[in-house]
Amino acid sequence: MTSETATLDPPGSIAIVGAGPLGVEAALYGRFLGYNVTLIEAAGVGHSQRVNYELPLPVMPHECLSPLAVSALHAQDAELLPQTLPMTYQDWVEKALKGIVAGDLLEGRLRCPSRVTKISTVPVELDEEDSEEDDPIPPDFRLELTSVYGQADPLDSEAVILAIGDSAEIPLDFSLPADYFFRIGQSSTGDLAEDLKQGRQEIVALFAGLAGRETLDLYRPRRSE
Q1: In sequence order, which residues have a C-beta less than 8 Å from that of residue 165 and are 6 or more positions away?
Q2: pLDDT of residue 61
Q3: Spatial contact of 140 and 156, defined as CB atoms under 8 Å apart
Q4: What is the pLDDT at residue 115?
Q5: On the CB side of 143, how many CA atoms lie within 13 Å of its CA?
Q6: Running DSSP on this structure, what letter comes out for residue 93?
Q7: How crowded is residue 46: how many other Cβ atoms within 10 Å of its Cβ?
Q8: At a CB cut-off of 8 Å and minimum separation 6, what does 210 contact?
């Protein structure tokens, strides 16, 4: 949650934890708006879906990819967009999610494997001009990252989005709710289509709040001229 005044102009920095379907979608949405996005994943893109790899997707093919995802895949390379949309979980991860992360908008923005072990707040170092402003500058977030080799590599970011559901908890050194700190995909219904729909609604609301524009919705079809 954020307060009504907790806005962030592009290219503000956003750290997104979890490269599952909603984490990848949030990263893509943020990049379409011009934010400086870092996507952090402990195991691999779409790793949580691997147990279902051989199963057919329990949704209509067009429901597993947002309009932004389809646009990103097609813009990168028309051949990346299958002639038929993903029909299995494996297709979804290997052909779609990994293709999006490898595309122009998110290329080089995935930090994997990296596990977030703690999130704290750190004061922002102000220059002389900023220090004279009346409104206080909110602290940044510091994410403590650990690689599979045990190397520590902290990352500072102005906003954080957790896209890891309820199954994983990360220690925080601040109280919730906190401005610029979000969680998406917490309310799983067990219905993939509904969960994706709800998650995308949360992403829309989140970025509309950051932009200070209630009507901002990149999924809404453009009006024809």
Answers
A1: 18, 185, 186, 188
A2: 72
A3: yes
A4: 94
A5: 26
A6: I
A7: 23
A8: 2, 6, 7, 8, 12, 159
Tokens of 73: 């895949």
110/171 Cα distance (integer angstroms): 22
Q: Are strands 36-40 and 110-111 parallel, antiparallel or unpaired?
A: parallel
Q: Which two three-digit tokens encode residue 59?
A: 């949704």
Contact 66, 217 (CB under 8 A): no
Token pair in block for residue 138: 């909110």
**CB distance 97 to 35 below 8 Å:** no
Query: What would the pLDDT profile of 7-65 be if each residue is shown by its tens digit?
Result: 999 999 999 999 999 999 999 999 999 999 999 999 999 998 999 999 999 988 778 99
Helix, strand, or coil (residue 85): coil
What is the token pair recorded at 3?
């307060």
Q: What is the pLDDT of residues 137-158, one digit of tens each?
A: 889 999 999 987 778 889 999 9
- Most distant CA pair in the chain: distance in Å? 59
Provide the whole-model pTM.
0.90
For residues 98-116, average pLDDT: 95
User: Which amino acid makes up residue 66?
Assistant: S
* Structure confidence at residue 53 (pLDDT): 94
